[in-house]
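note to self — DONT lose this again. spent like an hour looking for the file last time. sequence + predicted structure for the chain T wanted, 427 res
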Amino acid sequence: MSRILLLKLILSGIITLLLPTLSPATQSAELKIIAIVLSKTCPLPDGPDMTIDSPDSILRSMSNPDCPKHGDTQLVQTAIANQGQVQKEIGVEIKVRVDGQELKKKRHRKVYTIQAHDTARVLHEINLENTGRYQISVRVWDSRFKRILLNTTAGDERYFYIASPQDLEVAKTQLATGVRVSGKRIITPLKFDPPDLRWESVQVLPKHALRGEKLILRLNLMNVGGDIVKDIATKIQYYNVKQPMRKSVIAMPSTRVLAPGEITTFNLEYILPDDQLLGKYQIVATVDPENEIEELKENNNIAKSNVFKLSDIKLLLPTDKFSFAENGLFLFQWDSLAFSEFKIQVGVDEKFEDSGSFFDLPQGNRWIADKELVPLAGELPGMAMGLMRAKEKNKLYWRVIGRQASGRQSISGINSFSITPVSPDSS
């Protein structure tokens, strides 16, 4: 079909787009309204059966900073999860009703694109210009707001109450006389899950750190519970795996608020003190260390990082179990921040206990200031393969000795390597 003909058909409305689409039922099944969270909550009940018949609670709500009041701004946050395999474009509507009447001017409607297996977080501000019983609900539409895909289920709407001057007068009368004003029903509080804090991940880089090198820590804290939580304290510590009871504090970061499903990330930098033992270490992160927050679960507040190694000298090349070709290039590389002079040792003794089973490079009393070494002709593979034949071994080991100007020395870990002989047929 020519381009001109195709254009004419499109303009005449004959052609419809034959793109693959999901049925409304399929789209609804793959979408989920995770929660509706309010920035201001209150001891007054916020459920569908809410009525006002507790005069002292009404009066206390006027002085409680957590309670919404006439003229305040209420922040509403909802999260829409795309559990499907493809990106979706949806319309999100946040509806506001007061005493059963919808306030269309306070309604939020906007189109969002959600990637597969991702979550869109929608924030909406409401100026509380009305008193009465507020109901907040969420609808998910198609991108043109023509078809409803998902509604807030019954019981998941959020409610809050702003007392009117008449309500305050009624409450004062009840407290003064002890008489229940007719027409007021019994308050039935809504029960919902408390918050639940846990570490999603605790990561440390590098996995092999040099003494004096900066550690990069990345920690993700998540609220997997059903309610908002404020003023969250944490404690980040490190310890040598051989001394797990001797923990030292790195930092005590905090976060002001976490809504259900929300994640906050702590990015920290730290250098272990020079007097720390060499060896393997771990980071341990604790949220709510003083157990001040009531949570759904109290046994998931601690998480540990990957094990990382602290040393004075880090071996780079050859990596452990590397194989050199007999007629190829032999190169040794390492790194160190604490030492300035080096020599390497190569041998067939994996513990370097038998002095006759290894040799130094450079030989004798010579040291080098570089952090790499290319052996001289004859040193490798000649000396190494001769040692393997003499000791009847087929594997070699290497390590690095570092020296400071003061004479202090340190020895690296040990890596193994091998040499692949040249085939007799090769030339």
